[in-house]
């Protein structure tokens, strides 16, 4: 691990899932959004995230199996480490993968089908919706939440908009 205060901002992203949903443009966009979210913090370690692209049926199955909720959703996040609103664990070196030296952030599952539908429904297109879902999920992996309607949610929304602005995909 590098000395505290030394920014590394390197994120390894593994994307997998149904071949039909894995178009190069969507993958480039997802990688760009995930890196922007990770790099908005100055971590002294490299991170790693696994991202699965699926459809509504696939995400519904995972939602049912993992959360006991039998319905499709747009994105699911399964954090590996105990971040708190972007702050890593007190002793992050204990969470680093001994083989890679990277911090395993967790897993993200995106319903590409839902992202396309919501992008159209909300009138801002697939690109913004897909990037937003990626940023939203990355923030969950980094300890943000929106379970309340107060401060937690407001801080998460503010950080999301900050990152989306960096990507040039702010709300219109």
Average pLDDT rating: 90
What portion of residues is helical?
40-55%
Global morphology: globular
Q: Element order, helices and strands?
A: EHEHEEHHH
Give the number of helices: 5
What is the strand arrangement across the widest sheet? 1-2-4-3
Looking at how many chains there are and whether they match, the oligomeric state comes to: single chain
Strand runs, count:
4
CATH-derived architecture: 3-Layer(aba) Sandwich
- Work out the count of structural domains: 1
End-to-end CA span = 40 Å
Kindly provide the radius of gyration, computed on alpha-carbon positions and rounded to a whole number of angstroms: 16 Å
Per CATH, the superfamily is: Metalloproteases ("zincins"), catalytic domain
Flag low-confidence runs: 1-7
What is the structural class?
alpha/beta
Structure description:
There is one protein chain. This protein is of the alpha/beta class and 172 residues long. It has a single domain (11-166), classed as 3-Layer(aba) Sandwich (Collagenase (Catalytic Domain)), CATH 3.40.390.30. 42% of the residues lie in helices and 17% in strands. It is built from five helices and four strands, in the order βαβαββααα. The protein has helices spanning 24-39, 56-67, 112-122, 125-141, 151-166; strands spanning 11-17, 47-54, 75-79, 103-111. Strands 1-2-4-3 form a four-stranded mixed beta sheet. Helix 1 links the parallel strand 1 (11-17) and strand 2 (47-54). The longest helix has 17 residues, at 125-141. The radius of gyration is 16 Å and the shape is globular. The model is unreliable at 1-7 (pLDDT under 50).
């Amino acid at each position: 691990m590098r000395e505290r205060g030394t920014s590394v901002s390197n994120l390894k992203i593994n994307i997998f899932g149904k071949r039909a949903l894995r178009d190069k443009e969507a993958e480039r966009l997802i990688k760009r959004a995930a890196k922007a979210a990770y790099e908005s913090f100055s971590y002294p370690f490299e991170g790693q995230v696994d991202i699965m692209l699926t459809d509504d049926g696939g995400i519904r199955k995972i939602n049912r199996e993992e959360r006991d909720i039998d319905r499709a959703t747009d994105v699911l996040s399964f954090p590996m480490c105990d971040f708190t609103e972007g702050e890593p664990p007190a002793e992050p070196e204990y969470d680093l993968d001994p083989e890679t030296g990277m911090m395993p952030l967790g897993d993200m599952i995106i319903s590409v089908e839902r992202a396309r539908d919501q992008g159209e429904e909300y009138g801002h297109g697939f690109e913004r919706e897909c990037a937003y879902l990626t940023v939203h999920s990355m923030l969950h992996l980094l300890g943000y939440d929106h379970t309340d309607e107060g401060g937690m949610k407001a801080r998460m929304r503010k950080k999301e908009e900050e990152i989306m602005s960096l990507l040039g995909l702010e709300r219109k």
